Protein backbone atom coordinates (compact mmCIF):
# COMPACT_ATOMS: atom_id res chain seq x y z
CA UNK A 1 0.00 0.00 0.00
CA UNK A 2 1.77 3.15 -1.20
CA UNK A 3 1.34 6.53 0.42
CA UNK A 4 -1.28 7.66 -2.13
CA UNK A 5 -4.62 9.36 -1.44
CA UNK A 6 -6.38 6.00 -1.90
CA UNK A 7 -3.93 4.25 0.46
CA UNK A 8 -4.28 7.00 3.06
CA UNK A 9 -8.07 6.68 2.79
CA UNK A 10 -7.95 2.97 3.60
CA UNK A 11 -5.49 3.61 6.43
CA UNK A 12 -7.83 6.20 7.97
CA UNK A 13 -10.77 3.81 7.70
CA UNK A 14 -8.83 1.07 9.51
CA UNK A 15 -7.75 3.48 12.24
CA UNK A 16 -11.33 4.71 12.66
CA UNK A 17 -12.61 1.14 12.92
CA UNK A 18 -10.05 0.36 15.63
CA UNK A 19 -10.91 3.47 17.59
CA UNK A 20 -14.61 2.64 17.32
CA UNK A 21 -14.16 -0.66 19.16
CA UNK A 22 -11.76 0.87 21.67
CA UNK A 23 -8.75 -1.38 21.02
CA UNK A 24 -5.20 -0.11 21.27
CA UNK A 25 -2.65 -0.68 18.52
CA UNK A 26 -0.75 -2.94 20.92
CA UNK A 27 -3.76 -5.21 21.47
CA UNK A 28 -4.57 -5.38 17.77
CA UNK A 29 -0.95 -6.20 16.99
CA UNK A 30 -0.90 -8.93 19.65
CA UNK A 31 -3.93 -10.65 18.12
CA UNK A 32 -2.42 -10.42 14.64
CA UNK A 33 1.09 -11.41 15.69
CA UNK A 34 2.36 -7.98 14.66
CA UNK A 35 4.35 -5.38 16.51
CA UNK A 36 2.63 -2.20 17.64
CA UNK A 37 4.98 -0.32 15.30
CA UNK A 38 3.70 -2.33 12.31
CA UNK A 39 0.09 -1.54 13.18
CA UNK A 40 1.05 2.14 13.37
CA UNK A 41 2.74 2.01 9.97
CA UNK A 42 -0.33 0.37 8.42
CA UNK A 43 -2.66 2.96 9.96
CA UNK A 44 -0.51 5.78 8.59
CA UNK A 45 -0.11 4.28 5.09
CA UNK A 46 3.61 3.89 5.65
CA UNK A 47 3.65 0.17 4.86
CA UNK A 48 2.12 -1.96 2.15
CA UNK A 49 -0.64 -4.34 3.16
CA UNK A 50 -2.27 -7.27 1.38
CA UNK A 51 -6.01 -7.84 1.12
CA UNK A 52 -5.62 -10.92 3.34
CA UNK A 53 -4.04 -8.77 6.07
CA UNK A 54 -6.89 -6.26 5.81
CA UNK A 55 -9.32 -9.16 6.17
CA UNK A 56 -7.48 -10.29 9.31
CA UNK A 57 -7.58 -6.79 10.78
CA UNK A 58 -11.30 -6.50 10.11
CA UNK A 59 -11.90 -9.83 11.85
CA UNK A 60 -10.07 -8.58 14.94
CA UNK A 61 -12.04 -5.34 14.86
CA UNK A 62 -15.32 -7.23 14.31
CA UNK A 63 -16.13 -5.32 11.12
CA UNK A 64 -18.69 -7.28 9.11
CA UNK A 65 -21.29 -6.92 6.38
CA UNK A 66 -21.22 -4.06 3.90
CA UNK A 67 -18.47 -2.21 5.79
CA UNK A 68 -16.19 -5.24 5.51
CA UNK A 69 -16.97 -5.66 1.80
CA UNK A 70 -16.32 -1.97 1.15
CA UNK A 71 -12.94 -1.97 2.89
CA UNK A 72 -11.82 -5.18 1.21
CA UNK A 73 -12.76 -3.66 -2.14
CA UNK A 74 -10.61 -0.64 -1.29
CA UNK A 75 -7.72 -3.00 -0.47
CA UNK A 76 -8.13 -4.92 -3.75
CA UNK A 77 -8.13 -1.74 -5.80
CA UNK A 78 -5.39 0.06 -3.88
CA UNK A 79 -2.88 -0.08 -6.76
CA UNK A 80 -5.34 0.35 -9.60
CA UNK A 81 -5.31 3.80 -11.20
CA UNK A 82 -8.51 5.80 -10.89
CA UNK A 83 -9.87 8.20 -13.49
CA UNK A 84 -8.04 11.26 -12.16
CA UNK A 85 -4.67 9.44 -12.27
CA UNK A 86 -4.89 8.37 -15.90
CA UNK A 87 -2.74 10.41 -18.25
CA UNK A 88 -2.59 13.40 -15.96
CA UNK A 89 -0.15 14.85 -13.49
CA UNK A 90 -2.45 16.55 -11.01
CA UNK A 91 -1.37 18.43 -7.88
CA UNK A 92 -1.38 16.19 -4.82
CA UNK A 93 -3.95 18.37 -3.06
CA UNK A 94 -6.36 18.06 -5.98
CA UNK A 95 -6.05 14.27 -6.13
CA UNK A 96 -6.61 14.14 -2.36
CA UNK A 97 -9.71 16.34 -2.70
CA UNK A 98 -11.13 14.21 -5.50
CA UNK A 99 -10.51 11.03 -3.53
CA UNK A 100 -12.19 12.51 -0.44
CA UNK A 101 -15.22 13.58 -2.51
CA UNK A 102 -15.50 10.06 -3.91
CA UNK A 103 -15.58 8.54 -0.40
CA UNK A 104 -17.71 11.15 1.35
CA UNK A 105 -21.26 10.33 2.38
CA UNK A 106 -22.04 13.97 3.19
CA UNK A 107 -20.49 17.17 1.86
CA UNK A 108 -21.21 20.64 3.22
CA UNK A 109 -19.68 23.63 1.51
CA UNK A 110 -19.80 27.38 1.97
CA UNK A 111 -19.03 29.51 -1.07
CA UNK A 112 -18.65 33.26 -1.00
CA UNK A 113 -17.68 34.61 -4.41
CA UNK A 114 -18.51 31.90 -6.93
CA UNK A 115 -20.96 29.09 -7.60
CA UNK A 116 -19.54 25.90 -5.98
CA UNK A 117 -17.50 23.71 -8.31
CA UNK A 118 -19.84 20.73 -7.95
CA UNK A 119 -22.57 22.82 -9.62
CA UNK A 120 -20.57 24.71 -12.23
CA UNK A 121 -21.23 24.55 -15.96
CA UNK A 122 -18.33 24.18 -18.37
CA UNK A 123 -18.67 27.78 -19.55
CA UNK A 124 -18.74 29.17 -16.01
CA UNK A 125 -15.70 27.12 -14.96
CA UNK A 126 -13.82 28.26 -18.04
CA UNK A 127 -14.43 31.91 -17.17
CA UNK A 128 -13.16 31.28 -13.62
CA UNK A 129 -10.04 29.55 -14.96
CA UNK A 130 -9.28 32.33 -17.42
CA UNK A 131 -9.71 34.98 -14.73
CA UNK A 132 -7.43 32.92 -12.46
CA UNK A 133 -4.64 32.99 -15.07
CA UNK A 134 -4.66 29.23 -15.62
CA UNK A 135 -2.42 28.53 -18.66
CA UNK A 136 -4.40 28.20 -21.88
CA UNK A 137 -3.16 24.68 -22.56
CA UNK A 138 -4.38 23.49 -19.14
CA UNK A 139 -7.85 25.03 -19.07
CA UNK A 140 -9.65 22.24 -20.96
CA UNK A 141 -8.29 19.60 -18.59
CA UNK A 142 -9.29 21.61 -15.51
CA UNK A 143 -12.78 22.19 -16.89
CA UNK A 144 -13.23 18.49 -17.70
CA UNK A 145 -11.98 17.36 -14.29
CA UNK A 146 -14.40 19.66 -12.52
CA UNK A 147 -17.28 18.31 -14.61
CA UNK A 148 -16.41 14.68 -13.90
CA UNK A 149 -16.08 15.42 -10.17
CA UNK A 150 -19.76 16.31 -10.18
CA UNK A 151 -20.52 12.61 -10.65
CA UNK A 152 -20.37 12.14 -6.86
CA UNK A 153 -23.83 13.75 -6.75
CA UNK A 154 -25.45 11.42 -9.28
CA UNK A 155 -23.74 8.05 -8.85
CA UNK A 156 -25.67 4.99 -7.65
CA UNK A 157 -25.17 5.84 -3.97
CA UNK A 158 -24.62 9.62 -4.16
CA UNK A 159 -23.20 11.83 -1.47
CA UNK A 160 -25.55 14.20 0.30
CA UNK A 161 -24.64 17.81 -0.41
CA UNK A 162 -25.64 20.89 1.56
CA UNK A 163 -24.39 23.99 -0.19
CA UNK A 164 -24.41 27.49 1.30
CA UNK A 165 -24.05 30.07 -1.46
CA UNK A 166 -23.65 33.78 -0.79
CA UNK A 167 -25.98 35.95 -2.87
CA UNK A 168 -22.97 37.84 -4.22
CA UNK A 169 -22.13 34.73 -6.28
CA UNK A 170 -25.51 35.11 -8.00
CA UNK A 171 -25.09 38.83 -8.45
CA UNK A 172 -21.65 38.67 -10.09
CA UNK A 173 -22.15 38.21 -13.89
CA UNK A 174 -19.31 35.75 -14.53
CA UNK A 175 -19.01 35.40 -18.30
CA UNK A 176 -21.98 37.66 -18.95
CA UNK A 177 -25.73 37.12 -19.00
CA UNK A 178 -25.80 33.99 -21.20
CA UNK A 179 -23.22 32.14 -19.13
CA UNK A 180 -24.96 33.11 -15.90
CA UNK A 181 -28.41 32.13 -17.19
CA UNK A 182 -27.11 28.67 -18.12
CA UNK A 183 -25.35 28.39 -14.76
CA UNK A 184 -28.36 29.33 -12.68
CA UNK A 185 -30.64 26.99 -14.64
CA UNK A 186 -28.27 24.19 -13.69
CA UNK A 187 -28.29 25.34 -10.06
CA UNK A 188 -32.10 25.35 -9.90
CA UNK A 189 -32.23 21.92 -11.54
CA UNK A 190 -29.62 20.50 -9.13
CA UNK A 191 -31.62 21.74 -6.13
CA UNK A 192 -34.46 19.39 -7.16
CA UNK A 193 -32.35 16.32 -6.43
CA UNK A 194 -33.26 14.56 -3.15
CA UNK A 195 -29.62 14.44 -2.02
CA UNK A 196 -28.95 18.15 -2.59
CA UNK A 197 -29.89 21.06 -0.34
CA UNK A 198 -29.27 24.60 -1.57
CA UNK A 199 -29.16 27.44 0.96
CA UNK A 200 -28.63 31.02 -0.19
CA UNK A 201 -27.17 33.59 2.20
CA UNK A 202 -29.10 36.78 1.33
CA UNK A 203 -27.28 40.10 1.21
CA UNK A 204 -29.47 41.47 4.00
CA UNK A 205 -28.04 39.05 6.58
CA UNK A 206 -24.86 41.13 6.59
CA UNK A 207 -21.83 39.42 8.14
CA UNK A 208 -21.89 35.63 8.36
CA UNK A 209 -19.53 32.74 9.10
CA UNK A 210 -18.82 32.13 5.43
CA UNK A 211 -17.13 35.50 4.95
CA UNK A 212 -13.87 34.09 6.31
CA UNK A 213 -13.46 32.07 3.12
CA UNK A 214 -14.68 29.09 1.16
CA UNK A 215 -14.58 25.78 3.01
CA UNK A 216 -15.84 22.24 2.50
CA UNK A 217 -16.66 19.75 5.27
CA UNK A 218 -16.64 16.09 4.22
CA UNK A 219 -18.02 13.26 6.33
CA UNK A 220 -17.33 9.55 5.82
CA UNK A 221 -18.74 6.18 6.86
CA UNK A 222 -16.08 5.56 9.51
CA UNK A 223 -13.17 7.97 9.13
CA UNK A 224 -13.47 11.24 11.01
CA UNK A 225 -14.64 14.34 9.11
CA UNK A 226 -12.16 16.57 7.31
CA UNK A 227 -12.27 20.18 6.15
CA UNK A 228 -10.82 21.46 2.89
CA UNK A 229 -9.91 25.14 2.72
CA UNK A 230 -9.74 26.45 -0.81
CA UNK A 231 -7.18 29.06 -1.82
CA UNK A 232 -6.33 30.81 -5.07
CA UNK A 233 -3.72 28.31 -6.24
CA UNK A 234 -3.72 25.70 -3.47
CA UNK A 235 -5.71 24.37 -0.56
CA UNK A 236 -5.30 22.83 2.85
CA UNK A 237 -6.86 19.90 4.69
CA UNK A 238 -7.79 19.98 8.38
CA UNK A 239 -8.67 16.82 10.28
CA UNK A 240 -7.94 17.47 13.94
CA UNK A 241 -11.30 17.20 15.76
CA UNK A 242 -10.87 20.44 17.70
CA UNK A 243 -10.15 22.32 14.46
CA UNK A 244 -12.96 20.65 12.51
CA UNK A 245 -15.38 21.55 15.32
CA UNK A 246 -14.86 25.25 14.52
CA UNK A 247 -16.27 24.66 11.06
CA UNK A 248 -19.12 22.58 12.46
CA UNK A 249 -20.05 25.64 14.52
CA UNK A 250 -19.77 27.81 11.41
CA UNK A 251 -22.19 25.49 9.58
CA UNK A 252 -24.66 25.73 12.46
CA UNK A 253 -24.45 29.52 12.29
CA UNK A 254 -24.96 29.52 8.51
CA UNK A 255 -27.94 27.22 8.91
CA UNK A 256 -29.63 29.87 11.06
CA UNK A 257 -28.80 32.78 8.74
CA UNK A 258 -29.42 31.21 5.33
CA UNK A 259 -32.74 31.22 3.52
CA UNK A 260 -34.65 27.94 3.65
CA UNK A 261 -34.36 25.63 0.59
CA UNK A 262 -37.61 26.78 -1.06
CA UNK A 263 -36.81 30.47 -0.58
CA UNK A 264 -33.26 29.85 -1.82
CA UNK A 265 -34.56 28.45 -5.10
CA UNK A 266 -36.83 31.49 -5.42
CA UNK A 267 -33.85 33.82 -4.97
CA UNK A 268 -31.85 31.95 -7.63
CA UNK A 269 -34.86 31.94 -9.95
CA UNK A 270 -35.19 35.72 -9.63
CA UNK A 271 -31.60 36.16 -10.80
CA UNK A 272 -32.15 33.57 -13.52
CA UNK A 273 -35.05 35.58 -14.97
CA UNK A 274 -32.90 38.72 -14.83
CA UNK A 275 -30.05 37.12 -16.79
CA UNK A 276 -32.40 35.46 -19.27
CA UNK A 277 -33.93 38.86 -19.96
CA UNK A 278 -30.52 40.44 -20.49
CA UNK A 279 -29.41 37.58 -22.76
CA UNK A 280 -32.50 37.75 -24.97
UniProtKB/TrEMBL annotation:
PROSITE patterns: HTH_CROC1. Residues 14-68 form the HTH cro/C1-type domain. Gene3D superfamilies: lambda repressor-like DNA-binding domains. SUPFAM superfamilies: lambda repressor-like DNA-binding domains. It holds the Pfam family HTH_31. One of its GO terms (molecular function) is DNA binding. Transmembrane segments: none annotated. This is XRE family transcriptional regulator.
